[in-house]
UniProtKB/TrEMBL annotation:
One of its GO terms (molecular function) is 5'-nucleotidase activity. InterPro entries: HAD-like_sf, HAD-SF_hydro_IA, HAD-SF_hydro_IA_YjjG/PynA, HAD-SF_hydro_IIIA, HAD_sf, PGP-like_dom2, Pyrimidine_5'-ntase_YjjG. This is Noncanonical pyrimidine nucleotidase, YjjG family. It holds the Pfam family Hydrolase.
Length: 229
């Protein structure tokens, strides 16, 4: 793998940028701002799978960006039987995006592995996240300068695992798929999506995955990438 790879593509959220940790801190802040007396841990336990469900629907073009931002909050509050009016939910959804990017926790070893890899490969990002938020996340966490190109789904009009976003990213990077590898936390969006266009893939199990896959190269710490790249 080391001999053939020239371009390394990363997912951002849940792979480099510690989404769950930063998201939890964001909710703590906006609940305090809006004076919502709700148990944060109970909310996060309910919200997390709902958010993942909405992102899957978003990838499949079954909900819009506004529907995702509103629906995930509305459904979580309803499940907990915590009454919040629509106006407040809409304000929370805006404040959430605004404050989320101010937190900058990365997964352990992120900067070290990027520093290691950039000496040998060209590095790139492919993300389904919202353009304005992803740019700020990378800038505030001081990793944007590591990447030659950044491709997000809003630029292309489709989301991973749609082959179009991978082809767009490869063209932007002037990269041959046979010389490229995708690293991300989603088997469906990142790894299977990359395989469809002829790229290799490494699945990052950030602790969320119960099942591992014998035919998929999997790491549980970013430092392990040195074994393959």
């Amino acid at each position: 793998m080391k001999k053939t790879i020239k371009h390394v593509f990363f997912d951002l959220d849940h792979t480099l940028w510690d989404f769950d940790r930063n998201s939890g801190l964001t909710f703590k802040k906006i609940f305090e701002v809006h004076r919502l007396d709700i148990n944060l841990n109970e909310f996060l336990e309910v919200y997390k799978p709902i958010n993942l469900k909405y992102w899957k629907l978003y990838r499949e073009e079954r909900v819009s960006k506004p529907d995702l931002r509103y629906g995930r909050l509305k459904e979580a509050f309803d499940y907990l039987e915590f009454k919040v009016d629509d106006e407040t939910i809409n304000k929370l959804s805006v404040d959430y995006i605004g404050h989320l990017t101010t937190f900058k926790h990365l997964f352990d070893g992120t900067k070290d592995i990027l520093e290691y890899l950039r000496q040998k490969y060209e590095l790139h990002i492919i993300t389904n996240g919202f353009e304005e938020a992803q740019e700020r996340k990378m800038t505030n966490s001081e990793i944007k300068h590591y990447f030659k190109t950044i491709t997000n789904s809003e630029m292309v009009g489709v989301k991973k695992p749609n082959p179009k976003i991978f082809k767009f990213a490869l063209e932007l990077a002037k990269a041959d798929p046979k010389e490229s590898i995708m690293i991300g936390d989603s088997l469906e969006a990142d790894i299977e999506g990359a395989h469809k266009v002829g790229m290799s893939g490494i699945l990052f199990n950030n602790g969320e995955m119960q099942n591992l896959f014998d035919d998929i190269t999997t790491i549980s710490h970013l430092e392990e990438l040195k074994n393959y790249l």
